[in-house]
Specification:
- By secondary structure, the chain is an alpha+beta fold.
- The chain has two domains: 40 residues, no CATH class; 130 residues, no CATH class.
- The chain contains five helices and 13 strands.
- It has a five-stranded antiparallel β-sheet with strand order 7-6-11-12-13, with helices on one face. It has a four-stranded antiparallel β-sheet with strand order 4-3-2-10, covered by helices on one side. Strands 1-5 form a two-stranded parallel sheet.
- Strand 12 and strand 13 form a beta hairpin.
Length: 182
């Protein structure tokens, strides 16, 4: 419509200052999205899996972290540090069928159920709780998911992928009775 009026007046067609401002803002927004894209920056997004959970916790900027997998479907994630929620933007790739095992007082391996977690007035089912302590050590446990067994050493080693629960129990008993790092 303004083009028709401009032609009638003998003026050349042009953009208003407001239209140019909108175009510049849109270009800046698009450039900011493209510049932060992991595809173009060459960075792969970090995917949290059972095989790298301790290492991911150690990359965070806090000394003590609790990682929770919550909900009936085990599809909610909560990261805490000193009771405060952390904003962590990692992709989570964990099974919803995770079983945790620990040794009881008699040295028998037993399936472990995590206690529920109260968040405000709501109580959430905890499927997995994993901790990084101030000294850099992590939770000592055995996790089984997707027909794989992981032994999480209580000290500073990477988790071991093992074939059977019994093999993981041997590692746990050996580490509890004769730790290498003490």
């Amino acid at each position: 419509m303004s083009l028709v009026k401009n032609r009638e007046r003998g003026l050349s067609p042009s953009f208003t200052l407001f239209e140019l401002l909108i175009v510049v803002v849109l270009i800046i927004i698009i450039i900011s999205f493209v510049a932060n894209s992991p595809i173009l920056s060459g960075k792969k997004p970090v995917v949290v899996q059972l095989s790298n959970l301790p290492q991911v916790l150690k990359t965070l900027e806090v000394k003590e972290v609790e990682f929770y997998l919550l909900g009936r479907e085990c599809d909610e994630v909560l990261w805490l540090s000193n009771g405060e929620s952390l904003e962590v933007e990692y992709e989570i790739s964990l099974s919803d069928e995770i079983s945790a095992y620990r040794l009881n007082y008699y040295g028998e391996l037993r399936k472990f159920e995590f206690p529920n977690l109260r968040i405000g007035e709501k109580e959430e089912k905890v499927c997995l709780k994993f901790q990084l302590f101030k000294n850099g050590s992590t939770t000592s446990t055995i996790l089984e998911a997707d027909e794989k067994v992981y032994f999480y050493n209580p000290y500073f080693k990477k988790p071991l992928l093992l074939k059977t629960i019994e093999e993981a129990k041997e590692h746990l008993v050996n580490e509890d009775l004769n730790p290498e790092y003490l």
